[in-house]
Structure formats: structure tokens, C-alpha cells
Amino acid sequence: MKKNIFAAALLIILIKQSFSQSLRQPISAIYTGVAAYSTQQGDVLSYLNNQAALVQVKNVAAGVYSERRFLLTATSMYAAAVAIATNNGHFGFNVKYSGFKNFTESQIGMAYARSLGKNVDVGIQFNYYSYRVPSYNSAGTVNVEIGTIIHLTDKLNMGLHVYNPVGGKFSKTNEKLTAAVTIGAGYDVNKNFFIGTEIVKEENLPVNINTGIQYHFMKQFFARAGIASATSAGYAGFGVTWNNLRLDFTGSFHPQLGLSPGLLLIMNIGKAAKTADNE
Hints:
mainly beta; 14-stranded antiparallel β-barrel; 2 helices; 14 strands; 55% strand
């Protein structure tokens, strides 16, 4: 009972700032997000952080991620994404869910991305976000997010992502989702080592800096690590790939709230598709 009360209070704190989503602040966004600014280390979940990264998915891919924040069932977060490369561009579909029986929030998104020449990729995503508090209130709203990534060199990439630039008001209340702007950069030192960082400014919240690295120390094994300045929470993960599958074990530690373990699974289906971007 005490755990449920604590979880409910924590979720209220996470979403109270002009209805800042806790779905926008998962540790998973840090773990999977920075790789959006890499042409070597990105994956199907990277485009959740910047839709322009969808261009780097050259086949059909699907991924799921689960995270038990602070070892509490009530604050668990789940995300699933699918990416499809076609000769008309790159399409993505994704779902996020968090909460427990006394409070839930979810988001369904549809994304599209393509290259505008050799050095610029752009993407857009439309979302339907909703929350529900049984016997009290429930509401939903439509919002949009837009991203672009510029390939300055073969190794250096920079990007801009804007979440909810307009609208995002709930139909039943006067509340609205916050807006957020992210500036990101990544450097592929070589095909095995990547370092990336992003500066995030969400409405009514302090600036947050996320920094991470990824290193393939063997062909089938790699590790990730990083830190988020807003919470001083560090994270690390270990991954293994075989054939078309990849499995990651992740963990993050908050100084006051403790451990948040996670599990990620990705499947790449078929050979790289011939798209308008690489014709």
C-alpha cells in the first residue's frame, strides 16, 4: 500500500509541470535516444528521440523496451516501435505506456522521415497522448514533433528536435502538454565507438544535458553508458546480437530513488530495402 501511495505521488510530481509527461522523461529515452545522432550505432528505437533518425533504418525492424523505474511496478514504463523502409520514405509506428490501476498515461505515434539530399534528414510524428485517473478524470490530446539531422561529415552529426511546438491542449481541461526543444550532436569515432550528447529544454523545467557513449568491444557484444544532468542519474547497458536479434540489459541509478532496471529487444527483418534515400 505504501509503495502504491509513493508511486502515485511520484507520478503526480512528474506530470504536474504544465502537464509535463512522465513518458517524456523515461530513463529509456536517455539510453536509446542519444544514438539518434549516429549513422553507425542507431536502431529502431532511436527515432523516438528524433524522427529524422528513422532514415537510418534500412529494412523492417521492431523493438520493445520495458523499464521498472525505481523497482516499482506502479512506475514501470513500456515502449514499442516499428520502422519500415520503402522507396517512398521511412515510416514508423510506436506506442508508449506507463502507470498502474490508479493512474495511467499512454501515447500512440505515427512517424514519417526521408532525406533531403545527402546531408540532411527530416522527420515528423503525430501523437495521440492520453491519461486516465479512475473515478476522477481522463483526457487526451493530439500533438506533433519534428526533427532534423544534419550530417556535417561522415562522422559528425547534429540535429534539432521540437516536441509539441503548438497545441497539445486537453479537450476536457485547461491543461496542455509542455513544449520541448532538443539540440543533439554525435560523433562516430569509428564503426565501433560513438559518443553523443543532447541539450534538452522543456517548458517550465531546467535545462537537461544527456551524454552517452557506446562501444562494440567484440563483433556481437557492446556496452553503453551515460548520465543525465537533470537528475544526476547515470545509466549503463550491455547488449548482445546474434543473427537479426539484439538483447540489451540496462540499469540506471538515482541517488535518492534507487535502481531502475530495463530490458530491450530488437528484431531486424529482411535485407536492407532499396529506398529513395539510397537510390
